[in-house]
Design goal:
The chain has a domain of 93 residues: Nucleic acid-binding proteins (OB fold (Dihydrolipoamide Acetyltransferase, E2P), Beta Barrel). The protein is globular, with a radius of gyration of 19 Å. The chain is built from two helices and seven strands. Strands 1, 2, 3, 4, 5, 6 and 7 form a seven-stranded antiparallel β-sheet that branches. The longest helix is centred in the middle third of the chain and has 7 residues. It has 148 residues and is mostly beta strands.
């Protein structure tokens, strides 16, 4: 699942580095706070960028308008569950999107048109449908505009 957040970088937290106890390989992580407009009150989200190459490649700065592509992961430790929000790609509104090569199988599958992130749109989920798009149906029940 790909979650996309558009907003402004308000803080870049200190770089964390270490060496894995299991493998002995070095690791690096930097957390970034992104604030997005969500109605009357702006909301913020903290995302992690993992890997020194990715941190350097994104070259983020406070005040930049960005669209961040995120993955949410959950893990259990001693009967408690913890979420992590990892940023794997960042786009800037004035930056032209770079074409990505797709395998031939994916290019042949008919997918419904996905909404594109626009500054100020906030958060939305982006998943390619498992089947070709079906015509929309009116919600059932007496819940007004709610589809469930």
């Amino acid at each position: 699942m790909d979650i996309i957040v558009s907003g402004i970088i308000t803080q870049i937290l200190p770089l964390e580095q270490g060496v894995s106890q299991k493998t002995g390989t070095p690791w690096a992580r930097q957390s970034v706070v992104i604030e997005h407009e969500s109605g009357q009150y702006p909301r913020s989200i903290v995302v992690d960028i993992n890997g020194q190459d990715r941190i350097n490649g994104m070259a983020l700065a406070v005040g930049q308008q960005v669209t961040a592509h995120l993955n949410v992961n959950c893990r259990e430790y001693n009967g408690r569950f913890f979420n992590s929000i990892d940023c794997w790609k960042v786009e800037r509104p004035n930056q032209a999107p770079q074409p990505q090569a797709q395998p031939a199988q994916q290019a042949q599958q008919p997918y419904a048109q996905q909404p594109q992130a626009q500054p100020g749109n906030g958060v939305y989920y982006q998943n390619p449908p498992a089947q070709p798009a079906q015509p929309a149906q009116a919600p059932q029940g007496g819940n007004g505009d709610l589809p469930f």
